């Protein structure tokens, strides 16, 4: 038995008995056999190192086996978790009711009883409330009411126009003699250049009178139509703004008749004097008078618009004052657009009037501290 087997094993096997050589036979034995039976010290150390290396390799293999075992345990744990999750999902699916379909979509996917409650649409749950007098009406009823109220306005306007036709000729003479400057010794007479010019002028002047009479009724009918849908504060603004608007429109027409038109016709007269004979056409002259008077009635609404915008918080006086140049440019553009005059005198007068109204309103707001 070799020394490696003795080192690896825990118990050394018993040595086999060897036959003792007889006397005189030792000299005859082979010397090589004795050399093999002897163990050199160097060989024993080499064998021990090889055994230690083998032991280290065995330990490394054991560690690798342990790592593989741990990985196998982790994989098994993950597999168990997935199996538990799948089982839970299957259990949940079994608990849910079966969906009913009609071939296009789900018909009943929830039980009839539900914890979710929805508010009654007719119940007041807060937020934006409706006006106290607001009632739902069909669209046809709204249209019918609007038509009836407009019919009342048209009836009153037509009555005013018809009454105006009775005194249209006297009104033409009165307006003609008052729009020209008083220093004229003789006012130039109007000229008619086509057969219907006089009748069309009478109708236009009478229609202007009918509009003036129907305007307050129109405002009142609009208020009655919108009243059920207005909040109390909106009614307050409406009742304060509309009469003010009518008064401002009247002031604009009076301003046009007493100040702007005389200045304008005085300029026209002296502009043409000495160069040609003055012959004002009746129709064209009254077209200019009516257009300018109506436009100034609208221009005089500027203070009201500014006041309402500031009261409702849309803008401030400081912002309007900072942007005054933009407003001046806009006023000039509107004046030249709606008051066509080759001499440029009429749009200049209208633009100056708009700017003065704007600046006067700013001064009033500054004085009142608004």
TrEMBL record:
Pfam families: TatC
Signal peptide segment: none
Keyword annotations from UniProtKB, A to Z: Cell membrane, Membrane, Protein transport, Translocation, Transmembrane, Transmembrane helix, Transport
Membrane topology: Multi-pass membrane protein
Family matches, as InterPro entries: TatC (IPR002033)
Coiled coil (residue ranges): none
Region (Disordered), start-end ranges: 1-136
Subcellular location field: Cell membrane; Membrane
Gene Ontology MF annotations: proton motive force dependent protein transmembrane transporter activity
Segments crossing the lipid bilayer: 147-168, 205-225, 237-268, 288-313, 325-340, 346-365
Acidic residues bias (residue ranges): 1-103, 114-125
Assigned protein family: Belongs to the TatC family.
Described function: Part of the twin-arginine translocation (Tat) system that transports large folded proteins containing a characteristic twin-arginine motif in their signal peptide across membranes.
Name of this protein: Sec-independent protein translocase protein TatC
The organism of origin for this protein: Natronococcus amylolyticus DSM 10524
Gene that encodes it: tatC
């Amino acid at each position: 038995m070799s020394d490696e087997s003795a080192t690896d094993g825990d118990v050394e096997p018993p040595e086999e008995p060897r036959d003792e050589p007889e006397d005189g036979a030792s000299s005859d034995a082979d010397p090589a056999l004795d050399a093999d039976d002897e163990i050199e010290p160097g060989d024993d150390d080499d064998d021990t190192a090889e055994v230690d290396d083998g032991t280290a390799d065995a330990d490394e293999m054991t560690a690798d086996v342990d790592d593989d075992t741990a990985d196998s345990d982790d994989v098994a744990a993950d597999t168990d978790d997935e199996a538990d999750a799948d089982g839970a999902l299957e259990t949940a699916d079994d608990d849910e009711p079966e969906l009913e379909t009609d071939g296009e979509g789900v018909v009943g996917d929830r039980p009839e009883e539900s914890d979710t409650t929805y508010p009654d649409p007719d119940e007041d749950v807060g937020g934006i409330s409706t006006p106290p007098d607001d009632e739902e009406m069909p669209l046809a009823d709204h249209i019918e009411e609007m038509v009836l109220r407009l019919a009342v306005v048209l009836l009153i306007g037509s009555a005013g126009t018809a009454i105006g036709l009775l005194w249209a000729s006297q009104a033409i003479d009165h307006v003609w003699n008052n729009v020209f400057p008083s220093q004229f010794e003789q006012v130039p007479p109007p000229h008619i250049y086509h057969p219907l010019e006089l009748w069309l002028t009478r109708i236009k002047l009478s229609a202007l009178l009918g509009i003036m009479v129907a305007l307050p009724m129109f405002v009142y009918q609009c208020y009655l139509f919108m009243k059920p849908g207005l909040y109390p504060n909106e009614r307050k603004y409406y009742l304060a703004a509309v009469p003010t608007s009518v008064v401002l429109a009247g002031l604009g027409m009076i301003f046009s008749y007493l100040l702007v038109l005389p200045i304008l016709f005085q300029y026209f007269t002296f502009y043409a004097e000495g160069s040609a004979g003055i012959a004002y056409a009746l129709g064209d002259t009254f077209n200019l008078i009516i257009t300018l008077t109506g436009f100034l009635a609208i221009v005089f609404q500027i203070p009201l618009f500014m006041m309402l915008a500031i009261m409702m918080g849309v803008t401030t006086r400081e912002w309007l004052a900072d942007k005054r140049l933009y407003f001046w440019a806009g006023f000039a553009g509107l004046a030249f657009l709606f008051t066509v005059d080759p001499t440029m005198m009429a749009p200049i007068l209208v633009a100056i009037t708009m700017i003065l109204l704007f600046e006067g309103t700013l001064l009033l707001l500054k004085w009142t501290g608004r």
